[in-house]
Write a structure and sequence with these properties.
Helices cover about 15% and strands about 50% of the residues. It is mostly beta strands. It has an eight-stranded antiparallel sheet with strand order 3-2-1-8-7-6-5-4. The longest helix has 9 residues.
């Protein structure tokens, strides 16, 4: 599937999008709705998407683990050759459209770095996504 079609498929999927800034890093994180994950036949990790700048995201990253506690929290662990990244979204307020994010990077030698930031939050229902 082309990148365009994959992006269009994600855009048309019901779920929650987080546009986050932490220090100078910028990330967009998509989490599918509970209904979408329940109906999915296959690895639900493929439904979650993380994009952003190379400052905190390695080019060869893959989503290794997700703990989806939405509507209140979301945890995603990304693994890559150069470093692993943990994204911990908390204090989600859907009415205000805000949340907090902590980004923790771990280098192969065990050295870690953590930055905190904020996100704007938007949700799309199945009818809105169609």
């Amino acid at each position: 599937m082309s990148i365009f079609l994959a992006t269009a498929a994600t855009a048309a999927m019901a779920g929650t999008t987080f546009d986050c800034r932490a220090d100078t890093a910028y990330l967009t994180i998509f989490a599918p709705s509970e209904e979408v994950t329940a109906a999915h036949r296959g690895n639900v990790l493929t439904l979650y998407k993380v994009t952003g700048d190379g400052e905190v995201l390695a080019a060869d990253r893959k989503i290794a683990q997700v703990f989806d506690g939405l509507p209140t929290s979301l945890y995603i662990k990304l693994t890559a050759t150069d470093f692993d990244v943990e994204l911990d979204i908390s204090d989600v307020d859907l009415e205000a459209g805000t949340s907090a994010i902590a980004i923790k990077g771990t280098m192969p030698d065990g050295e870690t770095m953590e930055v905190k930031g904020t996100c704007t939050v938007a949700t799309a229902s199945e009818s809105e996504a169609s």
